[in-house]
Design brief:
Number of strands: 4
Strand order of the largest sheet: 2-1-3-4
Mean pLDDT: 97
Bound molecules: glutathione
Distance between the termini: 37 Å
Amino acid sequence: MSLDFFGHPFSSYTQKVLIALWADETPFAYRMLDQEHPDNFEELKRHSPFALFPMLLDDGRPVIESTVIIEHLQAQHPGKNRWIPDGELGRRVRFLDRFFDLHVMSNMQVPVADKLRPEGARDDFGVARARERLHVAYDWLEKNLGDGPWAAGEVFTLADCAAAPSLFYADWIEPIGPGRPRLLALRERLLAHPVVARTVDEGRPYRSLFPLGAPDRD
Ligand SMILES: N[C@@H](CCC(=O)N[C@@H](CS)C(=O)NCC(=O)O)C(=O)O
């Protein structure tokens, strides 16, 4: 078997999958998407229509979309973690994974992407709406997360793979704030998890690339 993983250490969705790979100690070749490795970009573009990353090549077969990659790892290369448990808990995990990707990660990405647009092509309305929606997402999570240590309760799951990078970066864009202690505590517990801490550390050298300016913390 050969697993080739294409991503970049500062990319939130790359981090989401690295958490699963590292937590399971799954061996893989890290195909870095940076200027030193143009061939990796070429290979990504050959398989992925929008060249979004991360991407996994499993014996040459492409697997794209971070959630699907983690599902694939669980099915084909299982490790000690069960990323999507069976039954009701599994459905909760899937729901939270969608919630973090669609309502936290996606809204977080809007102001970041907007900053990279050329002058005159910016979308102030869209940015303001995304920032407001981040607060709606935070309020929902504050009210609906359980009391367990992790996003879906007692077990570290796919929901935490999604929660960690999305809360990490979203808090840089719109601080979660002390009024949401449950959500803030989840972010802190996630950042203290050894594999999440490793993703944060490996992304650290690239913080100057953060278009809105990375805060001097975390
Ligand atoms: N839904 C995709 C999102 C992937 C995504 O947006 N990746 C970002 C990096 S974090 C990307 O490829 N950005 C490059 C671009 O938008 O051109 C997933 O879960 O894998």
